[in-house]
Write a structure and sequence with these properties.
three-stranded mixed β-sheet, mainly beta, 7 strands, four-stranded antiparallel β-sheet, globular
Length: about 120
């Protein structure tokens, strides 16, 4: 059978209203983090024996067209590097002027290396 699709969550409907990154290694951390992210929703199942979750939330943005995207995870020296980019709406695009809080969380293979987050210029 084909491998299951990668688990990831992306949007702008988080209750987290500050800027930051997250690395989650176990169920206890995941339940606590998800409770902060979506307080009235149960945390999705993640197999933390084989995986961990990395995530980026850049804080508030002034229109609904902003997004953040984890573009890749790679080894660099003794670190695991999470590359991400922020996507702004194209100039001249109509965007609803509301404050949003974009995020992207992704399940990746478990690692004991230090995780570093690398913002890519777009």
């Amino acid at each position: 059978p084909p491998p299951p699709p990668p688990q990831q969550w992306q949007g702008h409907d988080t209750a987290i209203n500050h800027q930051g990154n997250v690395v989650v290694h176990n169920d206890e951390q995941w339940i606590r983090f998800w409770g902060e992210h979506h307080p009235h929703e149960a945390a999705p199942d993640v197999d933390f024996s084989q995986n961990m979750v990395v995530g980026v939330f850049p804080g508030s943005r002034p229109a609904d067209g902003f997004q953040v995207e984890i573009t890749g995870v790679r080894q660099e020296s003794k670190n695991l590097v999470v590359d991400f980019r922020e996507i702004a709406p194209p100039l001249g695009t109509f965007a609803v002027g509301v404050t949003i809080f974009p995020y992207h969380f992704k399940v990746v293979p478990r690692s004991t290396q230090k995780v570093k987050f690398n913002r890519l210029n777009t």
